[in-house]
Amino acid sequence: MPANFITAGIVLTARFYGYISTTGSPGNLTFSLLFPGTVVAFTKTPPASLTLGMFMCEAQFRCAVAGPSGNANARIWVMFANASTGAPVFYQGTDDVDLDTTPAAAFDVTAQFGSSGQTLRVEQGTLEALR
Question: What is the dihedral of CA 68, 1, 19, 62, to 10 degrees?
Answer without folding.
Answer: 40
